[in-house]
Amino acid sequence: MKESSKYLEKLVKEFSRLPGVGPKSANRLAFHILKRPLSEVENFSRALLEIKENITTCQVCNGISDNEICSICSDASRNKEIICVVEEAKDIITLNNTGEFKGLFHVLAGVISPLDGIGPEDLNISSLLNRVKDGLVKEVILALNPSIEGEATVLYLAKILGPFNLKVTKLAYGLPMGSDLDYADSATLIQSLQGRREI
User: Fold this and answer.
1) Does pLDDT of 57 surpass 80?
2) Among 28, 30, 46, 124, which residue has the fewest nearby CB atoms (within 10 Å)?
3) Region 126-141 average pLDDT
4) Nearest 5°: phi and psi at 182?
């Protein structure tokens, strides 16, 4: 459906490109922008430009950063003996916000997916091996999403990290808090059983 203004139509189209934003949500966002003061819209558009112009990739972990080395990698209080391997930079924020993990991170920038033409050579695996080869790292946690591709990548990484003198672990995927067993699928229940620990 055509909008009443070509400018509004253009903005709705741009919002529709965002993940999880359908036509109705895009419309709502466009009208929200239309109602806001010009100064707020200028700040918003400036923030969008600044993130594209100034955000870079950390030379150590491959996460996002304002500088060559991100704030986590340059934080002297972090435990340098543990590296948590994640698929994407956004996963660092999720895990770091728990306050539970105090080590370092490493971003693979994807997972092995032959159907999509993504092999080990397309991921940041060689830089991970460079980080562990000096023997200072004692544990690598594989915190990849519980998908077929994620599991295949976990198995591959566990194999190539095997020769190094370190502990390789993965997250125990299981039942979310407050869920009922009868609503859980069998794969989740299996992971829950396999990831059980003594209490």
Assistant:
1) yes
2) 46
3) 90
4) -70, -15
